[in-house]
Design brief:
Blueprint (H helix, E strand, L loop, with lengths): L1 H27 L8 H26 L6 H28 L5 H29 L2 H4 L2
Helix pairs in contact: 1-2, 2-3, 3-4
Organism: Streptomyces griseochromogenes
Keywords: Membrane, Transmembrane, Transmembrane helix
Protein name: Pheromone shutdown protein TraB
Length: about 140
Amino acid sequence: MRKILNTAHIYMIIGLVSGLYYRELTKAEDFDGTTQLAVVHTHVLALGMLFFLVVLALEKQFTLTDHRLFGWFFWIYNAGLAVTVAMMTLHGTLTVLGHDGGAAVAGIAGLGHVLLTVGLVLLFVTLGKCLPAASRKA
């Protein structure tokens, strides 16, 4: 349970720092257009911090970490979120600096989204296997 809480805490810090980075970079570059940096803050807080707080509550209720798929979910989801957020930050930074992100950035971001999807599927499979047998019949 501590690992899940620490993960949520780390995402809270990253989310807050990313908001500060967005504000300071756009101010320093006198940028007033649209950039993906504007949504990195909310993505990290929602898909990172809040998501893992929900997983923490599910762990308390269903002991998800006892299932062998939980570790796979945890690392694949985190890898997907890290790749996605890194590419959003890179693309947004390049936009603010007046450069094009290119197809490679979009492709790698797509890979991050695929990893997030696989992670979510693994979470739901794990949750389904951890539910008490009586509640599966309903």
